[in-house]
Amino acid sequence: MADGGVLRAMRTPWGARLVLDRPAKLNALDHALVEALDRAIDEAVADPEVRVVVIEGAGRAFSAGYDLNQEVAVVIEGPLQWRELLARDIAVTLKVWDCPKPVIAQVHGYCLAGGLELAMACDLIVAAEGTKLGEPEIRYGSAPVTLLMPALIGQKKTRELLLTGDLIDAAEAERIGLVNRVVPADRLAAEVDALAVRLARTPPEVMRLTKRMLNRAMEAAGLREAIEAGLDLGTMINAADTPEQREWDEIVRRDGLKAALAWRDRRYERLTGPSSEEASAPSTRA
């Protein structure tokens, strides 16, 4: 399978492991990585030897979300360009959702924003103990890109997480149904491998139709319409050019992303006091 430099694709007896491979950036999803993932999913779907796909992250995180440094460097001009950018990211996330083969997200460290959306698009999520998950976009004037969370965990918990930007740990994520299993970090790969072996025993056509049945049930309840509405409103939010957004962008350009994250966290500490999650967590656009 292809290796795009930012993504390693490894063959296994049951299928393919796709490894997000920007560990120095906590596997932030830049344009190259999104495009490499897009191609890798196409290759996995076309390969009859691939029964199951696993997506994981190299280094100390699954993914911290989309690459904010790249976004600020490009300077996105107006709502039309924002919509084009966000629509492209949604298309790749939904390609994972629509994959006719089962996809498992193997998450550890941080699974945030667009990284969490990628994991939520997978059929199953297996998380290492201590993983931090969340969508903190609202804290710097942005919004989720692919609005999957309400369909997975319901409105009330989604509202709490998206309106506060708070992170939760893996145990809480399992309790609310955001992840399927939580396992010790040193057993994560082995547990995912064992699960993939079980899934690979199902005849591919049966698996494909069962997945389609489940997807159609959620789509009949309005999943794709909600995602499309989220795209429209997310475009408006990102293009709003509020004073906070301008200050965020200026700090990123002048002092770097780390300084901008510190500025963001100080604003929330003044209101609530620092939390252990905020003291340690990175963040991204979506």
Which key phrases capture this entry?
286 residues, six-stranded mixed beta sheet, 2-enoyl-CoA Hydratase, Chain A, domain 1, three-stranded mixed beta sheet, alpha/beta, 9 strands, globular
Task: Describe the structure in your own words.
The protein has a single domain, classed as Alpha-Beta Complex (2-enoyl-CoA Hydratase, Chain A, domain 1). Strand 1 (7-11) and strand 2 form a beta hairpin. The protein is built from 13 helices and 9 strands. It has 286 residues and is α/β, with parallel strands linked by helices.
Summarize the entry for a quick read.
With 286 residues, the chain is an alpha/beta fold.
Classified in CATH, the superfamily is 2-enoyl-CoA Hydratase, Chain A, domain 1
SS strand fraction: 5-15%
Residue-averaged pLDDT, rounded? Answer: 90
Which descriptor suits the 3D outline? globular
Please work out how many helical segments DSSP would assign.
13
Strand order of the biggest β-sheet: 1-2-3-4-6-9
CATH architecture type: Alpha-Beta Complex
Q: How many domains, in number, for the residues?
A: 1
* Biggest sheet architecture: 6 strands, mixed
Q: What's the helix-strand series?
A: EEHEHHEEHEEHHEHEHHHHHH
CATH class, please? Answer: Alpha Beta
Number of strands: 9
> At the third CATH level, what is the topology name?
2-enoyl-CoA Hydratase, Chain A, domain 1
